[in-house]
Amino acid sequence: MPRGVKKENLPSKVCVTCERPFTWRKVWEKCWDEVQCCSDRCKNERKRRLQLANRELRTPEAPDADCNAHVSSDAAPPSDSKAVASTQHDLREAAACFEDTPCSFKEEGALRSPLL
Q1: According to the UniProt record, where is the region Disordered (predicted)?
Q2: pLDDT, mean of residues 53-70
């Protein structure tokens, strides 16, 4: 009596990368439920696509016109108290514009705002 399972009776799945069907392999015996790609090439291609998509999500979009409206062209430090108050107000407005910006820097394990 022959042992084992006939190849036509093996379970199969569709690869999430190339969308082609592939069948069960002995190396996937313990992790068949987690297998999503048919080969290392498809697995690496899927990882590459996910990394590119994550980079696109992380890149900041063009700043709003409102955020640039308060920025002055001169970079000279203010000399009187009115100018100092105006600059502080401008800085608060700029911080409010970028408040929703995701933190990307780490300092001693804690997330740090890119504005600090």
Answers
A1: 62-88
A2: 67
